[in-house]
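Propose amino acids for all 567 sites.
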């Protein structure tokens, strides 16, 4: 878990200390250094320093801290006596602590490591536990082991524990405000990744502007403004907001979830459904699959039905083969209306009439918008009139034409001028004998086109060639008659208004352009942009934590048996 660079540097430092001790032993064996005598060693054992190597290490430390400018004359005198072989049990440790406090953090860490390696235990119990961790070449293992109880102990040590374990051990809330201003950003990212830093901690208030925006994006992405997102180069957030605003998003290579959502939900490209399914988070993936399975029978839950942005996709997936009940909701009413219209254009007025007539019966207290009902009655009137012309039985034909007038009257009751023209046309048909009536069909609908469609002549040429390949001369004749009627109408002032017009208003058949909400992935925090904490940063925190250990210095030395033989 620890940074490999920091581990290597700690191992090198420990090896240097070991080699230094080995060289000191060799010098003593070779006579290069007399070392401390047995009598002097017994004096040092009285202050918790056991053995010649330990004495040499302590003397080296004392020589260094004796130069600290913060020491008083009395403290310098205490150090001088100790260097001469007469350490004072009552004053030495407080003086050493004061001297170390006057050094740079790196020097403090160096001396504490040396004392620890020499077996000098001048710290209290909690301090010893923390010193063992700081001097370890693998502090992460020490921290997560069951033996370690020193997971806190001042701001710097707490941050070191977090940095060494990459955020697995959080910084206690009590010291968090003290470390936020100076902690490396990578360590804060470790905390964010492990849930040790939350939005309510507002860490951005303690950082500069650039890092503050980054931390807010990591913890509170909803608070990031478009301008801040642009500064961060946070393209995902910008694309998400553009999609939800109904804007056309710029495609990316490779395509991302927002491209696929636009393709499937807005442009209804069903070929991209599987790719979208694979790109969505699990929750939205389940919703999309429920939507697709619901299209098999035309059944969806209420939340899906209420999301108007999904209606276009739902209608594209669902192909009902029986009349749709428009009473179920506005969505089903629009499906039923479009199905009836499509049946007219496909040449099945009988089935279109069945579908349009489903709008008549309404449950008590429920109603559809009047413009939807007007369109349904218009389709019913047209389909009834057309089927009357196809019926050989005169009585049935008259009944169908009477029914067409009834529906046309209902469609015109709100004063729509197109519906009123349609009503006048049906009444004229009824007032004319069957043999003298003009064709009741709308030639555009006969051709499978919308009323007044542009480029209808090109469509006719394509159909004619198709019928010619199939050898369907009857279809070619019907096509020619429809073309002649359109050409004839175009030469008169009334134009295409001479035909029974369906629909009254094409816009009423269009699916809403609302942006869907259900399949949209939730707003995710900005992904981490920092790497692992560097060895330099970890060693800097370790050094500051070592300075914090000075608060754990004992006021008096631990008791050792000073009368046992020296080594």
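Proposal:
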């Amino acid at each position: 878990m620890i940074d490999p660079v920091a581990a290597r540097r700690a191992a090198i430092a420990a090896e240097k200390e070991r080699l230094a001790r080995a060289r000191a032993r060799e010098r003593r064996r070779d006579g290069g250094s007399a070392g401390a005598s047995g009598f002097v060693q017994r004096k040092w054992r009285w202050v918790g320093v056991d053995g010649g190597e330990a004495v040499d290490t302590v003397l080296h430390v004392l020589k260094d801290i004796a130069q600290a400018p913060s020491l008083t004359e009395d403290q310098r005198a205490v150090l001088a006596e100790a260097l001469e072989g007469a350490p004072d049990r009552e004053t030495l440790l407080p003086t050493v602590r004061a001297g170390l406090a006057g050094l740079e953090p790196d020097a403090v860490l160096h001396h504490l490591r040396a004392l620890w390696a020499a077996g000098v235990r001048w710290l209290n119990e909690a301090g010893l536990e923390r010193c063992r961790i700081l001097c370890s070449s693998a502090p992460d293992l020490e921290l997560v082991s069951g033996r370690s109880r020193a997971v806190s102990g001042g701001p710097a040590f707490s941050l070191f524990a977090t940095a060494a374990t990459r955020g697995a051990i959080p910084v206690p809330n009590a010291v968090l405000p003290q470390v936020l201003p100076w902690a490396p950003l990578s360590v804060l990212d470790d905390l964010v990744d492990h849930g040790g830093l939350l939005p309510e901690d507002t860490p951005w208030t303690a950082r500069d502007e650039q890092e503050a925006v980054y931390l807010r994006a990591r913890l509170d992405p909803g608070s990031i403004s478009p301008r801040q997102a642009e500064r961060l180069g946070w393209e995902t957030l910008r694309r998400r907001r553009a999609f939800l605003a109904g804007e056309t998003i710029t495609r990316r290579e490779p395509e991302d979830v927002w491209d696929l959502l636009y393709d499937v939900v807005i442009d209804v490209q069903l070929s991209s459904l599987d790719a979208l399914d694979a790109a969505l988070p699990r929750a939205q993936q389940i919703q999309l699959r429920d939507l697709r399975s619901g299209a098999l029978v035309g059944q969806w839950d209420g939340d899906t039905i209420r999301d108007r942005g999904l209606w276009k996709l739902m209608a594209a997936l669902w192909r009902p083969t029986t009349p749709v009940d428009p009473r179920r909701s506005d969505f089903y009413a629009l499906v039923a209306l479009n199905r009836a219209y499509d049946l007219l254009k496909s040449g099945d007025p009988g089935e279109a009439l069945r579908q349009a007539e489903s709008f008549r019966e309404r449950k008590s207290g429920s109603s559809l918008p009047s413009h939807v009902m007007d369109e349904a009655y218009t389709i019913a009137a047209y389909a009834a009139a057309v089927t009357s012309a196809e019926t050989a039985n005169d009585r049935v034909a008259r009944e169908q034409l009477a029914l067409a007038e009834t529906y046309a009257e209902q469609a015109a009751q709100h004063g729509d001028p197109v519906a009123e023209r349609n009503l006048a046309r049906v009444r004229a048909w009824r007032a004319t004998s069957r043999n003298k009536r003009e064709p009741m069909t709308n030639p555009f609908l006969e051709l499978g086109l919308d009323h007044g469609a542009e480029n209808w002549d090109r469509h006719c040429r394509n159909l004619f060639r198709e019928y010619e390949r199939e050898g369907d001369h009857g279809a070619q004749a019907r096509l020619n008659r429809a073309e002649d009627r359109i050409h004839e109408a175009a030469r008169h002032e009334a134009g295409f208004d001479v035909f029974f017009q369906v629909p009254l208003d094409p816009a009423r058949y269009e699916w809403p352009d609302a942006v869907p909400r259900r399949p949209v992935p939730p707003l995710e925090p900005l992904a981490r942009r920092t790497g692992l904490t560097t060895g330099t940063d970890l060693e800097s925190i370790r050094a500051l934590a070592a300075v914090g250990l000075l608060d754990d210095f004992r006021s008096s030395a631990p008791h050792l048996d000073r009368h046992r033989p020296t080594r």
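The radius of gyration is 44 Å. Residues 388 and 394 are 9 Å apart (CA to CA).
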